[in-house]
Every structure is written in structure tokens, then in C-alpha cells.
């Protein structure tokens, strides 16, 4: 869900994508404080990233809170930036999904899709807590309840430097706290690697690679599910952005759960620097995927 980062550059003076100076070690904005060994000696509490690329200035590690908020909504790909020390960001939403399989139509509603992001201890460290409830209706049985709570950390690793990406990693897990119909009854850990590039002033690209332990929908056994995404974002005006995205799930040694591919897109609208409204829609690209989904949401940043 990296749309905010795609539409708005994470730093005002981000390097042009065509530059390869950092990749060659020639430097971007001067020497990285002293040694250019990939870890700047700058004061840690004022940095949005743990490391800089060789030859990169420590100024590139700074967080700019005068820029519009960067959200994890509404796409699948999370933002590769953190919110900043002491900053709290609330993101909520609703999604309707429908699928027709074997003549049986199943509709689902997820809400409030609450994600709380809070800058903890350092600008480069973000605490993440997410709560979602769901209703599933297959015309025979209607099931409503809470899903398991999501807990995670986002760690800012590097800012963009030429062709070298802005990156973060997210250790994450779900804990068995949901309703009987939705809980996994066990802790399910995972890891998400996030990366992105500002290509031009109005276009960015990003992606994520992650793996998570999950429960097979048929047998109830545990397996590792891989997920991959790629997204392109455009800034249409100063306040309106758009994106298109592909993402997929790849079960590793699952008993019944299939591979699923999706294509989706959407728009965002900024109201000042700290409020963003979004809308999205998507389709499944193979028979085992859900047929269609549509959703909307709102993000608020508190400095």
C-alpha cells in the first residue's frame, strides 16, 4: 500500500532515477559524513533510515514532515518509508469482495481495516498494529467476526540514491485473538521487504517481497505463503494521485490453497498535508482468485 510514497517523493531533493553515480560509488550529494561505509555516523534520532548508500550524504537520511503524509493505503504494496518519531498515523477503510465458484457466490465485507502506525524511539522505527473485522455471506451462511490482530515493526533501511532504491524491512505476525470462525489459533510470523524509486517528479515505481506463515483453507495445516507485488504511481495534480498494481500469492507446500493473481488500481485525494481519502478496485487474474473487489478509505496523520 505504497500509494502515498508513489505520488509524493519521500524527500524534496530525491535523486533522478537516471543517475548511476551512487551505484558506481562516485557520490550523490557528497561524502556520507566520514567513511562512506554504508553506515553514517550521524545522530541516530534524526534519521529516517539506518544506512546510506556509499557516497550518499547524511542529509538524504532526514525525514521531511513538511511533505504530505505517505500512506500504506490503498494498494497492496506497503510504503517503504516510516512515519517518524512521535508521529501517529491512522488508516481505515472498507472493502467489498465477490467471488463466484462452482455456481456459488460468496460476498465479503472487511472493516474498519484499522492500521495504527506510530514512530517509536527513532525516526527509522515504526510500530504497527492492525485490526480488521469481516462478514462472509454465501447465501446459505452468514459469518461475522474479528480477524486475528496484526503486529509489526517497520525499519527504514536506505533512502533512494540514483538507481539504488529506498528500502525498508517489516518483521510482522498475527496473534490468535480473533473470533472462532476467523482465528488461526496460533502465532503466524512473517517478513516483508519493501523497495521503491522516484522515477520522475510525477512517477514512481515500487514493490514488495514477503513471506508469511498461514493456515491452509482446506486441511487446516500450516505452510509458508510468498507474496510479490509491483506498482506504478502517478501524480495527476498537486492533490490527486493514481496507481496501478499487480500482486500475487504463492503457497509453498500448501495442501489445497492455490496461487492467486490480482490486478488493481485507484485514486487518492489529499486534503492538506495530513488527510488523504482513497478509492480502489481490482479483479482476479486467474480462476482461483476472487472475481472482483472495490474499497475506500481515509488516512490521518497526527504530528
Biggest β-sheet description: 12 strands, antiparallel, barrel
Order of strands in the sheet with most strands: 1-2-3-5-6-7-8-9-10-11-12-13
- Low-pLDDT stretches are 2-21, 23-45
Number of strands: 13
**Percent of residues in helices:** under 10%
Category by helix and strand content? mainly beta
Q: Tell me, what's the shape? A: globular
* Percent of sequence in beta strands: over 45%
What is the N-to-C succession of helices and strands? HEEEEEEEEEEEEE
- What CATH architecture would you give? Beta Barrel
Mean pLDDT figure: 86
Rg, rounded, reads 20 Å
Provide the CATH topology: Porin
Q: Give the number of helices.
A: 1
Q: What name goes with the CATH superfamily? A: monomeric porin ompg
Q: How far apart lie the N and C ends?
A: 21 Å
Number of domains: 1
CATH class: Mainly Beta
Give a description of the structure:
The protein is mainly β and 303 residues long. It has a single domain (3-302), classed as monomeric porin ompg (Porin, Beta Barrel), CATH 2.40.160.40. Helix content is 2%, strand content 50%. The protein is built from one helix and 13 strands. The chain has one helix spanning 3-7; strands at residues 88-101, 104-119, 125-137, 142-146, 149-158, 166-175, 188-200, 203-215, 222-235, 240-252, 260-270, 275-284, 292-302. Strands 1-2-3-5-6-7-8-9-10-11-12-13 form a twelve-stranded antiparallel beta barrel.
